[in-house]
Amino acid sequence: MDLRNERHLAMDDLVWRITQGEIDTVIVAFADMQGRLQGKRLHGRYFADHVVGHGTEGCNYLLAVDVDMNTVDGYAMSSWEKGYGDMEFVLDERTIRLLTHLPATAMVQCDLVWPDHTPVVQSPRTILQRQLDRCAEHGWAAVAGTELEFIAFDTSYEAAHDAGYRGLTSANQYNVDYSILGTSRVEPLLRAIRNHMYDAGLDVEGAKGECNLGQHEIGFLFADAMTTADNHVVYKNAAKEIAAQLGRSITFMAKYDEREGSSCHIHLSLRGTDGDLVFWKDGARTPLYDHFVAGVLATISDFTLLFAPNINSYKRFADGSFAPTTIAWGLDNRTCAVRLVGQGAGARMENRVPGADANPYLALAAMIAGGLHGIENELPLGEELVGNAYTSGLPKVPATMTAARETFATSAVARAALGDEVVDHYTNMADVELAAYQAAVTDWELRRGFERL
Question: Which domain range does residue 246 map to?
């Protein structure tokens, strides 16, 4: 099996390192609905003797709980009535990597199957793979990069919890967008993340400051879409672990406070499976590229729930904030939902709708499904928006989770591309979050109403 790069390990190499005592812990993990890594830490010798070639298993409730890991009703695949049985974890040997921020530890990521070896279709990795298979049927491969922002604090996770996540000490006290001085203040954290992620097989580009207080972004080189999604969830988990080791904390919330939110801009293009360009020919965009972008635009409302999967996600959509509110495209125009950038091999579309809380597998799957809808139906690409999309009067991105839930649940495109089981599953996820939010009494309500109402 070909390695993704020379910093990944072949299974034989991992087993040899275990026998030599270099590795004593192997994390076996998959991404759940929220894009979090879930799984087990296995003793190295047990992994080598009993898991290699066989995989392991875990409870199917891991794809049927809320963010607090509460079992909830409404999921067809998992319930008390069905006994909360097991799923099997199938090791993807292309993903074996060292985690140098942890002692003697390696990780392998997994696909999920049922005991009869049929895929768990609700698994985010399976959902993305299905769309990549559709691309392959046309002779195309999807390449992508995710730009993930976070806010760093000089407060530990434990202290942040005890403070109710309010009044935390930001890693920077002013806007450090592109500031070398400002990022130097946080360089011990940023450097540790960059170097440990390089060791883990990610191709690190660099780090830069962002607008909110303590907000930063670490960039990684584009890759095939599945590799990008796998790397994204490893990075997001490891960044939190590294921050915790340094007595700090970071959040990937889409909107932590009233200032700028944290985004996950996704860059995507198609290539021929032989590497040929399909989005750019003879010095210009191809009709295929235009159809793809038209499809993404036409289905942004259908798939907003997968780009913005939490109540908090919708607080980020604010005019004049660099987060999009208008469904429009432009050439290198950051006010639009879709920005087209680059030429030749660098020609790609940037989807600016997802926030830092997006599940990369689901967001990429939604973009590909929308783009293929545009290609297969030869949708025409409308006029480029020149100027300020916020004041254009064009249709808006769904502004609430309730609205996004309705468009997703009733979308014929989503059901045709993803399947009823997937749409119903993630509609229920939205219903669970909406019910929890509607039952909550917020700090804002208490401040406004305790005495004055």
Answer: 131-445
Q: Are 309 and 34 in contact (CB under 8 A)?
A: yes
Per-residue DSSP letters for 57-81?
EEEGGGGSB-TT--B-S--TT--TT
**Pick from 219, 396, 161: which is nearest to 301 by CA?**
396
Q: Are strands 223-224 and 249-251 parallel, antiparallel or unpaired?
A: unpaired
Strand partners of residue 338: 329, 351
The pTM for the full model equals 0.97
Residue 337 falls inside a structural domain: yes
What span, in angstroms and rounded, lies between the C-alpha atoms of 306 and 430?
Answer: 10
Q: Do 93 and 139 belong to one domain?
A: no
Would residue 160 count as lying in a domain?
Answer: yes
CB 234 within 8 A of CB 36: no
202 and 296 together in one domain: yes
423 in a structural domain: yes
d(CA 66, CA 432): 7
User: In the numeric block, which tokens belong to residue 88?
Assistant: 């099997």
**Distance (Å, whole) CA 119 – CA 127:** 10
Phi/psi at 157 (nearest 5 deg)? -60, -40
Looking at the 3D structure of the chain, how many domains does it have? 2
Q: What is the mean pLDDT of each run of 10 residues along the chain (453 residues)?
A: 94 98 98 98 98 96 95 93 94 98 98 97 98 97 98 98 96 96 96 98 97 97 98 98 98 97 98 94 96 98 98 96 96 97 96 98 98 98 96 96 98 98 98 97 93 93
Residue 224's SS3 state is: strand
CB environment 380-391: b (16+ within 10 A), e (fewer): ebeeebeeebbe
Cβ pair 329, 337 in contact under 8 A: yes
Tokens 């409302």 locate to 301
Task: Specify if 235 maps to a domain.
Answer: yes
- DSSP label of 380: P
Q: How far is the CA of 214 from the CAs of 135, 208, 217, 240, 255, in angstroms?
A: 39, 11, 10, 15, 13
Q: Are residues 141 and 187 in the same domain?
A: yes
CA–CA separation, 151 vs 57, rounded Å? 35
